[in-house]
Amino acid sequence: MTEPHLEETPSFEADPYERKWIVVSLVLLIAFMVTVTIAGFALGFQVPGDETRVDPRTVADSGPWNEPGLRDRGNGEYDAYVIARQYLFDPRTITVPVGSSVTFYLTSIDVQHGFKLQNTNVNMQVVPGEVSRLTVEFDEAGEFDYICNEFCGAGHAAMFGSVVVEADTGGA
Amino acid sequence: MLTQETTYQVSKQDRRFVGAHLLVAISALSVGSLFGPLQAFEWSGLDLYGLLEPIGLGDYYKGLTIHGVLNALVWTTFFITGFLTLVMIAGLKRPLRYPGLNRAGFYTMVVGLVMAAIPILTGAASVLYTFYPPLQASWAFYLGLTLVVVGSWIEGYGFYLTMAEWRRDNPGTRSPFIVLAALITMVMWQFATLGIAVEILTMLLPAALATISWVPSWLTRSGTDPELGRTLFWFTGHPLVYFWLLPAYLSWYGMLPKQAGGKLFSDTLARLAFWLFLLLSIPVGFHHQFADPGVPVGWKYIHSILTYGVAFPSMLTLFTVVASLEYAARKRGGQGLLGWIRALPWGNPVVSAQLLAGILFMFGGIGGITNASYSVNLVIHNTAWIPGHFHLTVASAVTLSFFGISYWLIPYVTGKPLWKAKWASVVNWTWFVGMMIFSNAMHVLGLLGAPRRTKLGEAPYVPDEWSGHLFRMSLGGAILLVGVALFVIIAARTAFQKERFAEGEGVEFPIAISMRDPQLTPLWLDRFKPWLIATVVLIVVAYGPQLLEQFGNASYNSPPISP
């Protein structure tokens, strides 16, 4: 084979329209990046992060996981410890007054589960050996189901619970 | 033109070898696809699983595992390795350097497929195609999947050795674009699958082997680290999507312009797009783990940004493919700002399949940007939106393109004309309409909070407002079933008919010529070394620290549980 000879030298060349398209694409993608950055960090839309690790075989034997449920931290702030296992959430029901800020802590003692609090942005993978955490503010009264949205075995479809947000502001 | 125009005849044995890939691929598709509509019907309240109980297929999640494994893994991997084999041979105009090596790779894949199929069918592997630990499947499932992947690696090695020989014989000549694209696809796949290779070999297989009494204990593990498993899985899981997509892109760039009657708009930009896919497909996996514990938010954010990066070569593709098509259409007399679209050869099912696939993929791409968007992802994570999304990507952009490719590829490898080309067009439009309805309903259901991979007919929390969308979804599923059934019939009738092409007739291997001579494409777009180095560096930077962290703190204390 002989070296092919060329009338021009190889170069990176793009059509003028193509150059414009490249610029538009980059601007668009950078705009997305900026938007996401602002939403995630300046406006504080949170995603679950790295929490402490636990031993899935023994985590339910000691506090706080030996007594799953609600802890009142005062000022309308609550911590909710929820254990996920085949095929239920413990506790099944969580009741808080309207206006509460609830931080959910979840872990699994068997397989992976999901925790999606319907009609909110709380959506977490629940993984054995890990603790998932997100906070939500309940500004409206009503019932919010939390459902398992990760396949966890034959009874997966039945796995859910609910947060009851009570309108009553009297007392406390 | 500088490229040789001599015609090269692909040997009968090589055609049969490619055909064997297609036979496995389409068989897998024909079985796997039956379960899709069953799931859709179940969601809308029509549970047909009782009818399948007598043949042992009455379990929803067994069916879901079959659907995912056969359609997303087997149909794609076998079609792709077969198609790329032909691209290598016909593109380089020479036989494979070591045909025995490639055959060994193929048979390894077949053995792996059979090995994985047995536990799936007997219900010992109903862990879905993501097989998240500590859900436990039979050891044969993991070993079978490993062999499928290793077999595809071996076929890839055969490609590299063939290419090396071609390079030696053709110094200074740019490699044909389609061949470069095939090789990049394989290289990307071999980097990407390291994740599941490590996950299976160090964690899942040892845990599964612990169930066999005679296996020595140093080969086994009593548990897994599920979060480490997820990180390793998604190291592979996202680039897997590009392994499916790039062969379709190869056809859109390197074949479709020719099939539509035109030329490739830019060889340079086509190559650049493929290199960027190699570079950016892999270090983006954490965008599947935004909702995970155990991965710091900083890494999630970095992968979110990098995922926007991988959208860039898709944007380049949109421009180049549309520009190539516009050129073809105007050559055919098309006019007007958008009126040229009508002048494309829509009557040719090879073309219309790919055009419709591209249209569906635009919606898929927009949804993909949403998925990548860090905190926005929490709205749709693990909801019906996700299967809605990937039915626009793997089940549309990829599968419908593969339908279109099949319409020339099956005649090419069998020497028999396409059976009822008109019906092939019907397949394309049926698939397009069915998928529009199905995926739209799935996206809406996801936004309303419907979970994915759930036997929803049994779920106690389904509100009435979902029912209309659930019905639309099952309607879409029924239409898709008609489409795929028709496709399988056409493929089978074409391959197994008696009629052959007459002497001198037949199908030409489609290669689109670039408008600008490929020799004018700069050398750095035809050399692997700089791109391989950059790919490794980026993977190390984007994954290294977190992988070290997770391996360093790994506790394999999650006991395996059979679903």
Protein described:
The complex is a heterodimer of chains A (172) and B (563). Chain A has one helix at residues 16-42; strands spanning 69-74, 77-85, 88-90, 93-97, 101-108, 113-117, 123-126, 132-137, 142-147, 160-166. With 172 residues, chain A is an alpha+beta fold. Chain A has two domains: 9-45; 59-166, Immunoglobulin-like (Sandwich), CATH 2.60.40.420. The relative contact order of chain A is 0.16. The model of chain A has no long low-confidence stretch (mean pLDDT 90). Chain B has 563 residues and is mainly α. Chain B has helices at residues 12-43, 49-52, 60-92, 99-121, 139-169, 177-192, 194-209, 226-254, 256-259, 267-280, 297-331, 349-372, 377-380, 385-414, 421-448, 467-496, 528-552. Chains A and B meet through helix 1 and strand 7 of A and helix 8, helix 11 and helix 13 of B.
Strand content of chain A: 25-35%
Could you name the CATH class of chain B?
Answer: Mainly Alpha
Structural class of chain A: alpha+beta
CATH architecture of the largest domain in chain A: Sandwich
The helicity of chain B comes to: 55-70%
Please work out how many helical segments of chain B DSSP would assign. 17
CATH topology label of the largest domain in chain A: Immunoglobulin-like
Task: Considering residues with a beta carbon less than 8 A from a beta carbon on another chain, report the largest interface and each chain's count.
Answer: A-B, 72 and 82 residues
The radius of gyration computed from the alpha-carbon positions of chain B, rounded to a whole number of angstroms, is 23 Å
**Cα gyration radius of chain A (Å):** 25 Å
Molecular shape of chain B = globular
Determine the CATH superfamily of the largest domain in chain A: Cupredoxins -  blue copper proteins
Q: What is the H/E string of chain B?
A: HHHHHHHHHHHHHHHHH
Give start-end ranges of low-pLDDT stretches of chain B.
Answer: none
